[in-house]
Each structure stands twice: as structure tokens, then as C-alpha cells.
Write a structure and sequence with these properties.
This protein is of the alpha/beta class and 256 residues long. Helix content is 54%, strand content 10%. The protein folds into 2 domains: 92 residues, no CATH class; 139 residues, HUPs (Rossmann fold, 3-Layer(aba) Sandwich), CATH 3.40.50.620.
Length: 256
């Protein structure tokens, strides 16, 4: 039940849905009521939200702080026992099965980074963790697609381990930690830079210290240009920020 509540809440708190909800309310008041002052207030609120979400320098600044919170590991990848790569690189699970193709999303760097490390360290164990984050999963699981991807890229089957039950970050951690402990050594954690704080400290709370290997950066290191407006980029940034801040806060409150 907790998974379903969290998934629905995550959708409802996406900035695009917040704007859409406000727009629907505004249209309703325009068409069916005579509350002029309230309608004007709603219109101004919608405009403010639109400008707020579209003002990308603010979201870039906040997202940059999240991405740089955990410094990338300097541990030699040639000496790693293994890496755990968190699911999230696949969205079109049903379409992948129907097309018999590996359909990647914008977080594909989680997988390509693992390939880069594997080329340098052919003894590397690769633990992929992820089933599906969909409420009603259809098609292949993320682990099924990851297996197809890695084998097609020439990774040996004996180097691959798959955890095929987890639906969110906390389950990634819980279902994977015994596998990591059974294969003693130094392990790296591969996930998006914005997702690294939540996942890194999640493993740490379970007694596992992993080497952080951040990928999928959305911000750079140069100074921020403070005069910029891009509603699409701003909405994407705020979606990530809200998702991670809410996730981290929830884990702290519940002790996960």
C-alpha cells in the first residue's frame, strides 16, 4: 500500500500537474461563477507559478546543490569488486517487449557508465536492481531489459547479477544488500547525480558504505546565468528537485 500511495503522490506533486490543476480551477471559475476577485487571484497565482517554474536559474542552482552534495569517488575502478546500478533507465517496458528492443530513457548513462567501468575491469560484478515502478506493470521488467542490454553489449553472463523485485529506491537497497555482502569487497554505486544523496545514505543506514559513481548530470560547474526563462527545462528540474527532497524527507521521517 505504501508503494501505491507514494507513486500517486509523486505524480500529483509534479509541477506540470500543479499548473494543470490550477488552470482547470481557473477555467471553472471563469465559465461557471461570478467571483471576479477570486478569479483574478487565481489568474495571478497561475502566472506566478508559471514564472516561478520557468525561471530556470533558481531550479538550476538548487539542482546543482543536490547533484554536488555527494562527491564522486576517486577509488580506482580497476580495483572494484562490483558495481550496483539502480533501475530507472527504462520507462517503456511493454513497448520494449513488443518491439524486442532495448528502449532507453534520459537516464541511460547509468548503463553506459557501467560498460565503461567493465571495459577497464573485466572481472567486475554488475548488480542491476529493479523490477518496475509502474502501478500496473506490463511487458518486461527493468531487469529483463537490462539483461538484454548488457549481453548485447558483450558483457559476460557470469559477471551479471539481477535483483528483480524492487519497485523503488528503498526496495533497491533492501533486496540488494545481502547480495553485496555475500560478494565481499569494494562496491561502487551507480545512479543519477540528483539521486545519489538519497540512495547513498540509504545504503549507509543499512551498514553499507559504497563508492559513489554519479552520472546523468543536469547542471554544469560554471557560474549560473541568472537571466533565463525556459518553462520546459524548469519543469523538468523542479520535478527532479521535488521528487528527491520529498523522498529524502520521507526516509528521514520513517527512519528508512
Amino acid at each position: 500500500m505504501e508503494f501505491y500511495i507514494a507513486t500517486v503522490a509523486n505524480y500529483l506533486l509534479e509541477p506540470i500537474y500543479i499548473l494543470s490543476f490550477c488552470l482547470i480551477i481557473l477555467i471553472f471559475f471563469l465559465l461557471f461563477t461570478n467571483y471576479k476577485k477570486l478569479t483574478i487571484f487565481l489568474a495571478k497565482s497561475l502566472l506566478i507559478l508559471f514564472l516561478f517554474f520557468g525561471y530556470t536559474p533558481l531550479s538550476n542552482f538548487l539542482l546543482n546543490k543536490i547533484e554536488d552534495f555527494i562527491k564522486p569517488s576517486k577509488y580506482p575502478v580497476q580495483q572494484l569488486t562490483g558495481v550496483i546500478v539502480l533501475g530507472g533507465s527504462f520507462d517503456l517496458l511493454l513497448e520494449s517487449k513488443e518491439r524486442n528492443e532495448v528502449l532507453l530513457n534520459s537516464s541511460a548513462e547509468r548503463l553506459t557508465k557501467v560498460l565503461e567501468i567493465y571495459r577497464k575491469n573485466p572481472r567486475l560484478l554488475i548488480l542491476f536492481t529493479g523490477f518496475s515502478n509502474q502501478l500496473k506493470p506490463k511487458g518486461w521488467s527493468e531487469s529483463d531489459i537490462a539483461k538484454k542490454f548488457f549481453l548485447e553489449q558483450g558483457v559476460r553472463l557470469e559477471n551479471l547479477i539481477f535483483e528483480n523485485k524492487s519497485r523503488n529506491t528503498f526496495e533497491n537497497i533492501i533486496y540488494s544488500m545481502d547480495i553485496i555482502r555475500a560478494n565481499k569487497g569494494t562496491w561502487g554505486l551507480v545512479t543519477s547525480a540528483s539521486h545519489m544523496p538519497r540512495s547513498y545514505f540509504g545504503f549507509k543506514r543499512q551498514g553499507l558504505i559504497l563508492e559513489p559513481i554519479s552520472v546523468d548530470y543536469r547542471t554544469g560547474t560554471s557560474s549560473i546565468f541568472w537571466i533565463n526563462f525556459d518553462i520546459q527545462n524548469g519543469l523538468e528540474n523542479w520535478n527532479i528537485i521535488l521528487h528527491e527532497v520529498i523522498g529524502i524527507s520521507y526516509y528521514k521521517i520513517t527512519g528508512k
